[in-house]
Each structure stands twice: as structure tokens, then as C-alpha cells.
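Session log. Operator J.P. requested a structure for one protein chain; no other inputs attached. Running the standard single-chain path with C-alpha cell output.
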Amino acid sequence: MPSNDVDDAEQSRRARPRRDRRQALIDAAIELISEGASADISAAAISRRAGVAHGLLFYYFTDKQGLVEAALADVLGRLADAQGPQPEEHAVRTRLEGFVRRHIEFLRDHRALYLRVVREEEFGEAGVESALRQARAEGERQVAALAELPDPLSPLVVAAISGWTGFLDRTAEAFFDTPDIELDALVALIVDAFEAVVESATRRSE
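Structure written below.
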């Protein structure tokens, strides 16, 4: 009976569960976006990389922009997981430093994607902007919990933490662009800034 690699690949693709095919498209989009501006991120290229039929992209995501938004949500979910506290981090300061360090390391490991999506706003449609806002809000909730701040937070403390998250990402960019900055020193500086703005906002809210 005739058999070849193409037939085997087609059988393998058809046998793949639906969720796996959807995730394969998300993973392929992340990979291609992360390869930099020269990478082909057309719907056809993403489908080829995922090893699935071209039409499935439109079945699962309506269009390429829907897939980009799903890919970004996937990456941001991984970021939220990465920022979480480790079992050995007991003191508040230690947890905050771990949060900041893992945040910066995650951005470093996904540098090309970060540049294209966040800094250069290459995919600046409303869905992408919404996903980024939600991720920032989740990060703010995470750091407030790590710092054991009372709930609900005062509006001034909320504003202080929101401003600090912008400072975190801007100083991370400075770290990526400036080889002479040491990560340990940067992490300590960012946590110092958090403690200072929260203390000031708390005092002024009383």
C-alpha cells in the first residue's frame, strides 16, 4: 500500500484534538512575532508553522488579529504566573524583589515580542490595548497582595501603584538598553521606589 511522509503528517494533523490545534496556532503566532520584524506573520505563515490547515485559523479566531490577541493573552497569562511568589519567599521585601526580578527576566526572554507589541505598538488595535490594560491591572493586584496592603486600597495608593508599574517597565527598558546596569541593583531600586510611593500615598490618605 502506498504511504509517504505527507500522508503521515496529514493523518497526524487530523488526529490532533481541537484544543491542541487552537493552541498550536497560538504558539506559532507567538514564535513568529518573537522572531522579530523580519518574520512573516501572515495567516498562511502562522498556519504553516502550526502545521494546521489555513482555514482553521479563521475557524478558531475569525481573523489574524483575533489570533494575535489570543497569543498576547496567552503570553500575559504566563507573565502573571511567572511573577507569582516562590515558596521560599517569606518576607514582604523578598517577595517584592522576586516579583520584580521575574517580571524583568520574563520581558527579557520575550524581548522581540515585547518590543513589537508594547513599545512599537505594531498591533495597536483595541483588543491588544485591552489585553495590555488587563495585564497591568493584574500585575498591580499581584504586587499589592505581595506587599500585604489593606483591602480596599485608597484611591491614592491605587494611583501610586499604577504609576509604579509604569516605572517598572521603563526601568526594565533602560536595563535592556544599558549593559552597565546590574540586575540586582535595578531590582533593589525598583522595590525601594515601590515602598517609597506606597508609604507616601498611604500617609497622605490618612
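Operator note: The chain has a mean pLDDT of 85.
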